[in-house]
Hints:
Distance between the termini: 103 Å
Helix content: 10-25%
Radius of gyration: 30 Å
Low-confidence stretches: 191-200
Shape: elongated
Number of strands: 8
Number of helices: 3
Strand order of the largest sheet: 4-5-6-7-8
Order of helices and strands: EHHEEEEEEEH
Amino acid sequence: RVPESFEVDLQFTVDQGPLIRVGTPVLEGLRRTKDGVILRELGKDTLKPGAIWTPQGEEALEQRLLNLSIFGAVSFESVGGRILERAQPGSDTIEIQEKDLKISVTERPAGTFEFGPGFRTDKGLIGFAEINYRNLGGWNRSAQVRTQVSRRLKDNRLLEQNYSFTYLEPYVFGNRLKLRFNTQFDRADKYLRRKGGIAT
């Protein structure tokens, strides 16, 4: 026979486990890049030394480092361990530990070189070359040099020459602020300038 009504008391005990604080950063995999590039990003994130270690902090820091475009892969690991405060039996005190943050990275190739020919009906044959490097001095600074020349097919005179240089500084006074500097030089053939074909 099943009773018409009954009550059951349930009691749950949740063990939060120790609270982990981030200790000293340990960096691996850097070849050209300076330690300061990672430490600079670490200081802006939730996994800076002394902060509480969270999965959200790992995800945010991983995305921040990958966005620099100089790392192909990033991974994290806790190493070592020190007890900062022990849990008291029968109390609500949580044990606090500190573990060092091991950051392993794989660097991507920092430079690219592109070149190729082309053709325009008004300029004839065109050739260009471009060099990009995004880790100058190991500090994630970028530079681009591009040159383009063209000539007429009739007498092989240079029709036009274009040269440009671009520099990108990712941090200004320690803040994440991009500073871009561009300069360009154009030169037309003297013969064509005399004919009034192109102005410099």
